[in-house]
Amino acid sequence: MDIAATRKIVDLDQARPPVPVKGRRLSHTYHSILFESPDDRIAEDGLKAPDFFVDLNCDQIVAAITAGRDEYNLKPFFHSSLRRVDAIHYRHEVMRDLENTALLERVRSFAQKMRDMRNQLARVQKLYYKEQKQAWFLDAVESYCDAIHAFAADLSDAEVKSRGFLGFREYLTGYARSARFTALESATQTLKADLATVKYSVLIKGDRFTVRKYEKETDYSADVEATFEKFKQGAVKDYRVKFSETDDMNHIEAKILEFVGKLHPEVFGPLDEYCSRNANYTDDTVAAFDREIQFYLAYLDYTAALKHAGLRFCYPRVSDDSKEVYDCDAFDIALAHKLVEQHASVVSNDFCLKGTERILVVSGPNQGGKTTFARMFGQLHYLASIGCPVPGREAQLFLFDQLFTHFEKEEKVENLRGKLEDDLVRIHRILAQATSRSIIIMNEIFTSTTIQDETFLSKRVMDEISVLDLLCVWVTFVDELASYNPQTVSMVSTVVPENPALRTFKIVRQPANGLAYAMAIAQKYGVTHDSIMERIKS
Known about the structure:
By secondary structure, the chain is α/β, with parallel strands linked by helices. It is built from 17 helices and 14 strands.
């Protein structure tokens, strides 16, 4: 019996990729595949999704991106925006490198090997016997060493240009040659070889057994098989007992292994010391790469289906000073994902703010795509702020300090406020926190009051936003806001000219047509054509 076939170990926390910590770095030129500088990293403890996530459906986007990757705990990376333009460029470079299919497959191969290693360790949770755990642990370390060597070789001749991959390649090459790693690999190979030489005999008599060293006894199994070979007569009933195969050993196997260990202390003694000394054998920087590279892989996988459907993505030009923004052929990525799954078409839109223009005022008929357009604007800036390619053919976007949303919410009895008062409180809170580098997205505010009051209040809020000189998208039925001052730009949701009841979902830059609020009023009081005809029929 070969002892190397018996199983493996270690501490349960090893089953999850470790969160990177300080120390054990061989190079000062490489910090992280996600963060160009340590100052770019935000503490993950207690980090929650931003307040705007639900309004913009970003929660749906992140849930879909990270699905099936729970072991990597990726959501904190998607919950924190970068604060420097160069930090965004750093991620763009890495993402561009991963567009190389050969490199992408090598990275995926490494990630799978690391996952297999963790699975080996995770199965230890079901094991009980010491020697078995040690064998599993040894196999896991061997898998880790093989993964490091293979990936270092893969990266050595890979075509990479990003600072992230160039730095990690240098680090990995140095780590694979380091005294710490080579000692780990050498000790692992030595122990595997020593265990492979261990042989023993088990003598069974009645309900008792004896384990002793192998003394070159004859193996009669081949002779027995040869003797009974001549009695085979084709297909017959199989009377052999089926043994269940599980990772764990039964108590008899464990006892045999315990006795074997006592017979060969020269092998099992060093194994004890090896497991204790290498309990934390994974390198922190390598483990951090294994986790953080999933940020890119997850996003590439999420967008692959959309690209296959013909939708475009681009690397936006991002600025932290210029507020001239635009995107050509942009779309709501959350909605597009659902539509593509349903084999439905996706409508894209353009927008542009130039010079002193700051506020997109979106008007038009209900169900015409206005809210979707507003969400899209927010999603684009959010995705740009975390260094991801954005929907569209070409884009230039602004690196905001804060992003605020004000979408209609149900009244809450517990706050003892009416709908209008709640709108005013929320708007006041946003304006109190906003700066000239913020973005505000508002969707049909003050709709619970009269048109006169809505217009008055909206103009007051517009004045405050204009003074702050921030970027804003405002969905409204108040057409006067569309041409309120030089900072405003009118966008209108369009309909099919031959049949105004049909929406095109295209939002175009043109003066407000004055019909949006009229239609809303007609619907509110039940005097639309359809409503009147329905009453006539009844």
